[in-house]
Amino acid sequence: MILLQNSGVPIYQQIAGQLKEDILAGRLKGGEYLPSIRGLARDLKISVITTMKAYELLADEGLVTAIQGKGFCVNAQDSEMLREQHLRRVEDALSEAITAARIAGLTHQELMETLKALLAVEKG
User: Fold this and answer.
1) Which residues, 6 or more positions from 8, have their beta carbon under 8 angstroms from its beta carbon?
2) Alpha-carbon gap, residue 58 to 79, rounded angstroms
3) How far apart are alpha carbons 119 and 97 in whole angstroms?
4) Residue 67 is inside which H or E element, if any?
C-alpha cells in the first residue's frame, strides 16, 4: 500500500480508496479478512485511529463487515453493483477529462479523437 503524505487526500481516505479498488477489482474477495487494524497501522506507521477510520468508511459503503473478535471481512460483491461502481468511476474520470479538455481549449471533436486513439492503443 502506498500512502502519499502531501497529496491533500487524508491518509484514511487513501487507505480506504486502495482497499476499495482491490475489492472492486476482485483482488480481495468476499469472505477474506482485511489486515488487522493494529497490524496495518504498524506496517504503515500510522495511528490505529486512522486505520479504523478507513475500515469504517468501507463498512459504511457496504464493502466490508466488522466481525466481533475477528476483524473486518470483505462482503460478497453483487456483479450488478460492481458494474455500477465501475460505471460511476468511468463517469467521474470522463467528467474530469472533459473539464481538462475545456481548460486546454480542445473541441469536442478533438476530445473524441483523443479518446478513440487511446481506445485503439488499449486494444493493441
Assistant:
1) none
2) 18
3) 14
4) strand 64-67
Phi, psi of 77, rounded to the nearest 5 degrees: -100, 130
pTM of the model: 0.66
What's the distance, CA 74 to chain centroid? Answer: 14
In angstroms, how far is CA 5 from the centroid of its own chain? 17
Place of cell 485503439: 120
Give me 76's grid cell.
460478497
Paired with 112 in beta bridges are: none
The 10 Å Cβ neighbour count of residue 34 is 23
Which cell is 70 given?
475477528
pLDDT digits (tens, 9 = 90+) for 74-104: 998 766 777 787 788 899 999 999 999 999 9
Show the CA angle centred on residue 42, arms to residues 25 and 68, nearest 5°: 70
